[in-house]
Fold this sequence. Notes:
Number of helices: 13
Radius of gyration: 20 Å
Structural class: mainly alpha
Amino acid sequence: MTSSAEPMADDAGRMTGGARSATGGGRLGLVRDEAALYLLLVRAAFRSAAQYRVSLVMYTLVEMAGAALDLATIGIIFAHLPDLDGFALSEVAFLYGSSALPFALAEALVGPLDQLGWQIKDGRMDATLTRPVSVLVQSATMDFSAQRLGRLAQPTAVFAVSLAALPVDWSPGRVAILPMMVLCGTVISISLAVGVAAVLFVAPDASVAIAAVRQGSALATQYPLTIYGRRMAMLLTFVFPVAFVNWQPALFILGRPDPFGLPGFTGFLSPLVALASCLAAGIAWSAGIRHYRGEGG
């Protein structure tokens, strides 16, 4: 897969260089070009994976089975308890789906960032710095695995079923906040992945710790934050703002006041948090690249 994707990256880089020269630069044009390159590299990965269809199907099924284990945990909990800290099964399933879906989307889009430390240690990162393509796009698509999409099926199904099971009045406001929740949650999840991956530029051996931060954040938001206590909930709200992936908007949808006494408008701050997360991730990524000294540097 890598052998087919890397030549595509070189071709895409030359295309981007020409496109930028033609448009004369500009932030909007730069973002558009990088998005087009990202899609081009992902298509190359899919074409490579399609050459081994049986393997693609098997790996996809394995990813789906792995994701199903999280849901089985919820089933085990409710087999022994009538509720989880006051939240019914349908509400916990909603929290699970509204958390797992954005994190699965982020994993599908930028999952290869987990391998950044290995790319730095084996010298591949140095090559990306010489191409007229952003390091972020190259890192997010290097060793891209099409099988990651298999993780989307199960949280999507749980999310849809939980919506039908929730005992709430689906007012226009609740309906409108659903796509915002998924979109902003995905942006926050991607920003978290980019921000923590930036640490690998100066500490490439920290790949396991970085993966643990991402996985821990995803797991924490699959359950009511009340089970962790106030201090941990505030940490997940104001330091690692993953509470805005689903918890805060979910409280509005469920018609529940914030159990920690935060004001009601907090549930509508996800777009602002998503924007702030993007800016913070961009700053962290740029700082990581500036401090990168190359393999053996």
